């Protein structure tokens, strides 16, 4: 049997073995002993983009076979992989030194809760055996034993890599936002449906039990009809820079004349100050990092991580956190596509996202559900403080008097209903009804939404094996991301836009339609 047929047969076997329950290749669990997993039950996973969030995704599927690793920067990514050994040592070592004993503490990171140390040990043991690549195209063409691919690259490469993997019948997990453009989101959703493969977007809160309670409160009518929603995040403050000019140039005007100390003059001085000739690091393939994006010289303000604030590669705070926040009103209220979107912001140069934005989405009525106005805030902008909060003041750590009861600092969502309000933190956590007496008298909603008994990533693994459905498949995720990205389209268009979702068209600004799509560069393309 040639390698291609072998890979296809193995994937088919993984998905059907539980149904057929027969075949000489299956190793019965009772033969292996308690706690051992038959090789036929494991998925062969390739990870593309492993220096950042991809590292967490890889750790979450460490019980499977990690057979290939791909990254454009093997200095940054290599250090990320090497830290797993340190993580394992910390898990084995109690605080204060030594091994074992009653003083050993579990890792407090909620992402790690419930992770057996044996899973982390298995991951550490198998990573040196995984083949390493810099170019995902070489990986997909050369390595035929891959069943599934996790993609956690910068946003601009999500669709291209996912599409290539899906063309080969691979199951795909893609970090949020699913894509860089609206058109890409629609194409991936269609391809996932056509290929009948397991897909998942990395909005982990969608799988949380507490988050599903939030949705049940809203769908049960705990606060009545909802016509207004406010969503906020503290990104990008303290996480990555935005509002920057493109690095480079000189701090002089025409013919060497001194620059004025006005807005344009200061921006040009700033560009010159952060500019300079920075050599590309030895282990970074800058051409592959750029991928589908326009040619730009390397600068350390772009990579690693800060790419999110630049239009060429990321989608700013809305692209970063919208999938964790807008997810819940979109899900619970069955919002569909907005009819109009308007984004206002601090100064925006078209190159680097502004420091702060506020976006106004309008959604039409859906059957008996009323029309909804949803407002997004980032970069320090916040919704009005609800009257239900206490007016009690306390001193903060700087001695300033502040309200004792405030919004969660990282972000959250507040729903305005005809019977009260509901407030929850990022990822749908900590739902509470306002006023407090409503929360106390109402109790918990009836549990109607299935609970995910494992991690978001392992839910996808089980979906790939055919034993469950994915929590946030592309069919759902693509529509959520389209809503988010329309906020970015309005920002880039510089105006309020009216949207015809059925035809994927901005009706009042022909030029704004250009921002619904990606102009592919450097020979890359998206296969249909």
Q: Describe the largest sheet.
A: 9 strands, mixed
Report strand order across the widest sheet: 15-14-13-7-10-9-8-16-17
Proportion in helices: 25-40%
E-strand count: 17
Gyration radius (Cα, Å) is 25 Å
How much strand? 5-15%
Question: How far from one another are the termini?
Answer: 29 Å
The computed structural class is alpha/beta
Q: Treating each run of at least 4 consecutive H or I residues as one helix, how many helices?
A: 16
In one word, what is the shape? globular
Rounded mean pLDDT is 89
Low-confidence stretches: 1-9, 15-36, 96-111
Protein topology:
Layout: H1 3-20, H2 29-32, E1 44-48, H3 53-60, E2 65-70, H4 74-92, H5 117-126, E3 131-133, H6 136-142, E4 148-151, H7 158-167, E5 171-174, H8 182-195, E6 199-201, H9 209-219, E7 226-233, H10 263-274, H11 286-290, H12 316-325, H13 327-332, E8 340-345, E9 357-363, E10 372-377, E11 393-395, E12 401-403, E13 411-417, E14 421-425, E15 432-434, H14 436-442, H15 456-464, H16 474-493, E16 497-500, E17 505-506
């Amino acid at each position: 049997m040639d390698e291609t047929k072998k890979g296809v047969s193995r994937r088919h076997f993984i998905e059907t073995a539980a149904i057929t329950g027969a075949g000489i290749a299956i190793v019965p669990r009772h033969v292996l002993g308690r706690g051992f997993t038959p090789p036929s039950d494991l998925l062969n996973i390739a990870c593309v983009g492993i220096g950042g969030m991809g590292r967490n995704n890889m750790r979450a599927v460490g019980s499977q076979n990690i057979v290939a690793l791909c990254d454009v920067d093997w200095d940054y990514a290599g250090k990320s992989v090497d830290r797993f050994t340190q993580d394992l040592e910390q898990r084995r070592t109690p605080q204060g030194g030594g091994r074992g004993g009653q003083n050993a503490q579990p890792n407090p990171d909620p992402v790690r809760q419930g992770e057996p140390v044996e899973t982390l040990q298995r991951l550490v043991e198998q990573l040196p055996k995984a083949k390493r690549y810099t170019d995902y195209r070489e990986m997909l063409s050369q390595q035929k034993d891959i069943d599934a691919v996790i993609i956690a690259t910068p946003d601009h490469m999500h669709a291209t890599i996912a599409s290539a993997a899906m063309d080969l019948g691979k199951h795909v997990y893609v970090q949020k936002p699913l894509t860089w453009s609206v058109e890409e989101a629609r194409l991936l959703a269609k391809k996932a449906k056509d290929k009948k493969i397991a897909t998942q977007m990395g909005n982990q809160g969608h799988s949380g039990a507490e988050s599903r309670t939030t949705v049940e409160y809203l769908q049960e009518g705990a606060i009545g009809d909802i016509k207004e929603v406010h969503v906020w995040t503290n990104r990008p403050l303290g996480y990555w820079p935005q509002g920057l000019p493109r690095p480079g140039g000189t701090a002089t005007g025409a013919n060497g004349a001194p620059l004025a100390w006005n807005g344009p003059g200061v921006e040009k001085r700033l560009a010159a100050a952060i500019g300079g000739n920075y050599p590309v690091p030895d282990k970074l393939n800058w051409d592959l990092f750029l991928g589908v994006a326009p040619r730009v010289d390397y600068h350390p303000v772009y990579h690693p991580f800060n790419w999110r604030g630049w239009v060429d590669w990321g989608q700013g705070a809305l692209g970063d956190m919208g999938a964790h926040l807008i997810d819940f009103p979109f899900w619970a209220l069955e919002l569909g596509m907005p009819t109009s979107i308007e984004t206002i912001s601090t100064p925006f140069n078209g190159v680097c996202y502004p420091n702060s934005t506020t976006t106004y989405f309008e959604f039409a009525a859906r059957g008996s559900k009323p029309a909804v106005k949803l407002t997004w805030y980032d970069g320090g902008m916040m919704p009005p403080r609800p009257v239900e909060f206490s007016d009690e003041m306390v001193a903060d750590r700087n001695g300033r008097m502040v309200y004792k009861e405030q919004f969660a600092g990282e972000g959250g969502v507040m729903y305005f209903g005809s019977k009260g309000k509901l407030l929850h933190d990022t990822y749908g956590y900590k739902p509470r009804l306002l006023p407090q007496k409503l929360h106390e008298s109402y109790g918990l909603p009836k549990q109607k939404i299935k609970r995910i008994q494992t991690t978001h990533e392992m839910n996808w693994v089980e979906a790939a094996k055919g034993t469950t459905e994915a929590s946030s498949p592309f069919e759902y995720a693509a529509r959520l991301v389209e809503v988010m990205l329309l906020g970015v389209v309005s920002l880039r268009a510089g105006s309020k836009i009216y949207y015809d979702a059925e035809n994927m068209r901005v009706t009042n600004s022909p030029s704004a339609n250009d921002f619904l799509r990606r102009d592919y560069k450097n020979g890359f393309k998206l296969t249909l």
